[in-house]
Specification:
This protein has 347 residues and is of the alpha/beta class. It has one domain: TIM Barrel (Alpha-Beta Barrel), CATH 3.20.20.70. The chain has eleven helices and ten strands. The protein has helices spanning 22-27, 66-78, 108-119, 159-175, 190-200, 222-228, 247-259, 274-283, 295-306, 312-326, 336-342, and strands spanning 39-46, 52-54, 62-64, 83-89, 124-129, 180-183, 208-215, 264-268, 289-293, 330-333. It has an eight-stranded parallel barrel, surrounded by seven helices. It is globular, with a radius of gyration of 22 Å. It binds the ligand NCc1[nH]cc(CCC(=O)O)c1CC(=O)O and zinc ion (2 copies). One zinc ion binds next to loops. The active site is at 215 (schiff-base intermediate with substrate), 268 (schiff-base intermediate with substrate). InterPro entries: ALAD, ALAD_AS, Aldolase_TIM.
Length: 347
């Protein structure tokens, strides 16, 4: 008879006890689980009122005309869509150096704000604030005539006039009914300029400010620029968006924007920047952290699934849950319509 020898009892070696049941596995998220109200759905609004245009580089997404918006959103709102972020796509409007079309009363996002606040009074309306969709040069600010000291084919931005112009546009959106404005230009001083603009207009208590604080000069914005027609006509955005290796400057940007009056901090893109999401959640613990799974990230997940590399739903969950785990509680996602279904299904 072999003698049984009890192994050394190491209580910390046992993990399976905590994951053998689906509910136990959910508990392992420590309360940080996805819910429908965490999602913001990005929507492209065309100035062609009857548009319903497929965007080939952004599978499943379309540019919507005003006449099509209500019909498109109604079923999603019924399924629990709580919030959208609007991007204006002026296909026919004239573009100039200061982006005058951005806050023209006829501009698609202002029209959409009027329409959506009537059609869906409960839906939270955020508007992306930027000039690049509306400027003739396609850059996010107002350009200086001075050459760029670093590179002849790069723009030099006039910082103060840009921040003022962006604030003007943000206030126009707030006046038109935006519940939240989200500047994506990355110019210095624009959070303070917008907050002061809202205060002077008497709208600061009625419009939140979500700062794209840590927005990196990423290769993942390509499909968006197709969708919005906002690619720069020369140079690139490396002079004003953060360098991808710049964790410290991102931390400074987050702290700066928190001090300048941001209500929410956003990190963008999301998946390659989970460390920055985690930094944001710690550096500004009293401001909820948002992140944007941008067009190229979305297209990557979809493309891999189409190639049979993984299951689409599984990878959409895994990528999105990684953002929540890192510290995000608000997620801008092109997968929002699917999540409204998926979150109702059994896992
Ligand atoms: N400033 C405009 C803007 N706002 C959001 C995105 C990207 C969103 C996405 O890729 O889904 C961009 C593009 C850019 O900075 O070039
Ligand atoms: Zn821009
Ligand atoms: Zn430069």
């Amino acid at each position: 008879m072999s003698e049984f020898k009890a192994p050394q009892l190491d209580v910390s070696s046992i993990l399976h006890g905590g994951i053998h049941h689906p509910t136990l596995r959910e508990w392992q998220a420590n309360g940080r689980t996805l819910t429908k109200s965490m999602f913001i759905y990005p929507i492209f609004i065309s100035d062609d009122p009857d548009a319903e245009e497929v965007i080939s580089s952004l599978p499943g997404q379309k540019r919507w005309g005003l006449n099509k918006l209500e019909g498109f959103l109604a079923p999603l709102v019924k399924k629990g869509l709580k919030s959208v972020i609007l991007f204006g796509v002026p296909m026919k409007m004239e573009k100039d150096a200061r982006g005058s079309a951005a806050d023209d009363p006829s501009t698609p996002v202002i029209q959409a704000l009027h329409l959506l606040s009537k059609a869906f009074p409960q839906l939270m309306l955020t508007v992306d604030v930027c000039l690049c969709e509306y400027t003739s040069h396609g850059h996010c600010g107002i350009l200086s005539s001075l050459p760029n000291p670093g590179h002849s084919n790069q723009p030099t931005i006039e910082m103060e006039p840009s921040a003022q112009r962006i604030a003007e546009v943000a206030v126009a959106y707030a006046k038109a009914g935006a519940h939240c404005v989200a500047p994506s230009d990355m110019m210095d001083g624009r959070i303070r300029a917008i907050k002061l603009g809202l205060m002077h207009a008497g709208l600061a208590n009625r419009c939140a400010l979500m700062s794209y604080s840590a927005k990196f000069a990423s290769g993942l914005y390509g499909p968006f620029r197709d969708a919005a027609g906002s690619a720069p006509s020369f140079g690139n955005r490396k002079c004003y968006q953060l360098p991808p290796q710049g964790r410290s400057i991102a931390r400074r940007a987050i702290q700066r924007d928190a001090n300048e009056g941001a209500d929410f901090i956003m990190v963008k893109p999301a998946l390659p920047y989970l460390d920055i999401i985690s930094d944001a959640a710690r550096l500004a613990p009293d401001l909820p952290t948002a992140c944007y799974q941008v067009s190229g990230e979305y297209a990557m997940v979809v493309a891999g699934a189409e190639k049979g590399i993984y299951d689409l739903k599984e990878m959409a969950f895994e990528t999105t849950e990684s953002m929540v785990r890192a510290g995000a509680s608000i997620i801008l996602s092109y997968f929002t319509p699917q999540f409204l279904d998926w979150l109702d299904e059994e896992k």
